[in-house]
């Protein structure tokens, strides 16, 4: 079984390229995920690299920006390559099947807002304190 579910904030804007043979979009970005902090220990954060394909990659480029909160569902994929010094570099990426935008807003820099549904006609907004449970 190879299944990964993560929630974190983008550490940079998504980078998109297109595969030459199929012109399919490929987006890559990293997210910051804090580990559970143990008493007396320093806070630790992981920064997994996320790879997304197709229309979802195009949507990531269009709507996501550094700092936005996202949920990612996918699988782990390992690989390796030789760097310019000839040393082998090993990689582990999350290949996303699904990316959920947990905050919305203008990509141009407006403050991100949590996803909220509009109030249907005939209903009124209530505060959390007014809910009896």
Structural features, described:
The structure is a single chain. This protein is mostly beta strands. The chain has one domain: OB fold (Dihydrolipoamide Acetyltransferase, E2P) (Beta Barrel), CATH 2.40.50.140. The chain is 8% helix and 45% strand. It has one helix at residues 54-63; strands spanning 4-10, 15-18, 25-34, 45-46, 49-53, 69-82, 88-101, 103-104, 113-114. Strand 2 and strand 3 form a beta hairpin. The radius of gyration is 19 Å and the shape is extended. The N and C termini lie far apart (38 Å). The model has no long low-confidence stretch (mean pLDDT 86).
According to DSSP, the number of beta strands is: 9
Task: Please tell me the overall pLDDT.
Answer: 86
Q: Main β-sheet: number of strands, strand sense, barrel status?
A: 5 strands, mixed, barrel
Net shape: extended
Query: What is the N-to-C order of secondary-structure elements (H for helix, E for strand)?
Result: EEEEEHEEEE
For the largest sheet, list the strands in their spatial order: 1-3-5-7-6
Main CATH class:
Mainly Beta
Unreliable spans are none
In total, how many domains does the architecture comprise?
1
Name of the CATH superfamily: Nucleic acid-binding proteins
What would you say the CATH architecture is? Beta Barrel
Structural class: mainly beta
The end-to-end distance, rounded to whole angstroms, is: 38 Å
Helix content: under 10%
Strand content: over 45%
């Amino acid at each position: 079984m190879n299944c990964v579910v993560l929630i974190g904030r983008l550490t940079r804007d998504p980078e998109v390229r297109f595969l030459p043979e199929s012109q399919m979009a490929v987006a890559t970005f990293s997210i910051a995920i804090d580990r559970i902090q143990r008493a007396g220990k320093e806070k630790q954060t992981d920064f997994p690299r996320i790879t997304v394909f197709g229309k979802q990659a195009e949507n990531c480029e269009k709507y996501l920006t550094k700092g936005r909160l996202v949920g990612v569902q996918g699988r782990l994929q390992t690989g390796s390559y030789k760097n310019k010094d000839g040393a082998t570099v090993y990689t582990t990426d999350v290949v996303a099947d699904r990316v959920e935008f947990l905050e919305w807003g203008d990509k141009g820099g407006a403050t991100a807002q949590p996803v909220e549904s509009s109030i249907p006609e005939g209903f009124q907004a209530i505060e959390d304190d007014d809910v009896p449970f």
